[in-house]
Amino acid sequence: MAERTTTTINAALAGTIDIGGDLPVNRFGFGAMRLTGEGIWGEPADREECKRVLRRALELGINFIDTADSYGPEVSERLIAEALYPYPEELVIATKGGLLRPGPGEWVPDGRPEHLRAACEGSLKRLRVEQIDLYQFHRPDPKVPFEESVGALVELKNEGKIRHIGLSNVTAGQVEQAQKLTRIVSVQNRYSVYERSSEPVLEFCSLEEIAFLPWRPVEGGALTADGVVAEIASRHGATPAQVALAWLLEHSPVMLPIPGTSKVTHLEQNLGAVALDLAPAEFAELDKSAEEPAH
Question: Reduced to 3 states, what is the DSSP secondary structure of residue 279?
Fold first, then answer.
């Protein structure tokens, strides 16, 4: 199978999306969760390769990077600053707060206002910035009223520490609820060609012109299975991941995929999705493929 790693491919081919009305970015970003150790814990096996990935992403026109204080924890944010600071003017870095990490593979919500304030302050220091372009509430905490958590981010925005506010792992109702307190410019939920439970949220974001950042956009092992995605990939000499990402870009104009990796070759391969020319009939096939089970 051919691999689309042509270095002339640029993220600009995906078109642009304007986050918050003043942060235009190419509609193919990079998710920095994988720049960590196993279980999203500790340092990555090859720190220098991870820094090369970040630098290469910028060379390829990727100007939106998504991270979180919980990735590592703290490791991903530090690596971004090590590799890319001082940042180019066009680069938008989004981070998140609201999860604790007791150990590898463990994720515990903490939406207390005092925690979110401390988390934001920590991210500012690690990223070496005075203001975070996009700060996202990582996950609603059932022990804390949602309005209190969002209210803490509004306070930080009013203080100039956050430019724009986003939400992650939320329902459309929660986005509406938050919008009564502040402008929400992005939503990050799990979504892919195989996992579409957030379709109502995506539809809401489309109506409100809110950027939608799908996490786990290629669903890992599901794409290696026999099925529509694999068949279409074979027809085009592409990878299943490229097909899945191309479908996301076509599916909604507010979609901003953020596939992640710790390898330069994999980064370049993923970006091949922006140059993949699928036929309308193939997109229709993919639209109908949601019933295929994710692994």
Answer: coil
Q: Is the peptide bond prior to 73 cis by the omega test (within 30 degrees of 0)? A: yes
Q: Three-state DSSP class for 100?
A: strand
- Domains in the chain, ordered, with CATH? 14-221+254-261 (3.20.20.100)
Cβ burial, residue 284 (10 Å; 0-12/13-18/19+): exposed
> pLDDT tens-digit profile of 17-66?
999 999 999 999 999 999 999 999 999 999 999 999 999 999 999 999 99
Taking CA atoms, 3 is separated from 8, 81, 239, 275, in Å, by 14, 30, 7, 12
Decide if 191 is catalytic. no
The pTM assigned to this predicted structure is 0.94
DSSP string, 9-54: --GGGG-EEEETTTEEEES--EEGGGSS-TTTBSS-S-HHHHHHHH
Distance CA 244, CA 239 (A): 9
71, 87, 135, 194: which one is catalytic? 71
